[in-house]
Write the structure tokens for this entry.
Amino acid sequence: MLNGKHIILGITGGIAAYKSAMLARLLIKAGAEVQVIMTPSAKEFITPVTLAALTGNPVISEFFTANTGEWHSHVDLGLWADAMIIAPATACTIAKMANGVADNMLVTSYLSAKSPVFVAPAMDLDMMAHPSTTANIDKLRSYGNHIIEPASGELASHLVGKGRMQEPEIIVAEMQKYFAKSQLLKGKKVLVTAGPTYEKIDPVRFIGNYSSGKMGYAIADEAARRGADVILVSGPVSLRPAQPGVTVVPVESAKQMLHECENFFNTCDIAVMCAAVADYAPANPADKKIKREKQDVQVINLVKNPDIAATLGAEKKSGQILVGFALETDNEQTNAIDKLKRKNLDLIALNSLRTPGAGFGTDTNVITLIDKNGTVTPLPLMTKPEAAAALWDYLTENR
Ligand code: CTP
């Protein structure tokens, strides 16, 4: 799975840097080409000569080679890489990555990288447990970086706890698993809806909702990361997909969203309806701005919008998979199962507004997957990209 892959191995100044030599060796044995970037302090722990000899490539550490003045382009490196692994990642480098402090070659290359990034933290247990470190690691997760959790055991300080860099074999296995997954949806066409819909009252006002679109965009990105061709029919949000395999079709109202979904559903293999579609729209949107009237009460007549998921559910052909979301405030499972049946869905992801960390606007979600065969799979609190990955794991493992 790593055969022919270009991998940047970032090494920072921690005692676990001695394990990076083994990591470089294992990556090369797996068929990868490895370019090492070291922070200046990493060179206190392991010599660049060792890594250059193992990888066959000169180690990069500074922006310029001192004697020749040759410039190392972090932008070119970022484009070259199919993956980046930072191991060991110290608390300092993690903080710099989380906050864009681009004061060395490693962090500038990280900021330029378009590839997946893996981070293997290594530090003392108290540093690892410090709220500053955990917040920075959470930030990296929210950027879509893959954290390879450190193990527990005896640390360089002789204290025992969580903070040991994962063994090189485990890091390589995690990277291989990632690339294996990246093939799972190859050749599949996926349709995703995301965001709110805006239903026009007049040229300056609309009825909308608080949906940020984050969950739908994460689902679309993750499908593309796994090789799918993705159409993302998106209501008005301020997001952009992170993956080139996602084509955004912007819409505003529920009717427009239905129209675009109908265009693409016929040829898609899997559709995930994540949009928070307005159930009603003003019956007669005004052409001109409605002026403030003398009366204290203004009435807007609303008419029912089409149910996009139910419409696609009725048109679904054998072999197509239709997934919905249910956002509930009460009787959660009963309501979700009712929607699953009513809309002819294959799977519904239930999230409750009563669960802390779930729902609109947040960066995290807590979802329960309910299959049409009755299997209920509750998932823990996750970032939205992690929840999206869990959804695709479920779909690829259970279908
Ligand atoms: N949905 C849709 N079109 C609509 C309403 C909802 O496609 N007009 C989809 C959503 O994208 C979601 C699922 O149906 O996948 C459930 O949405 P939700 O708003 O929870 O349910 P509703 O059917 O609108 O029911 P209610 O508002 O009564 O909870």
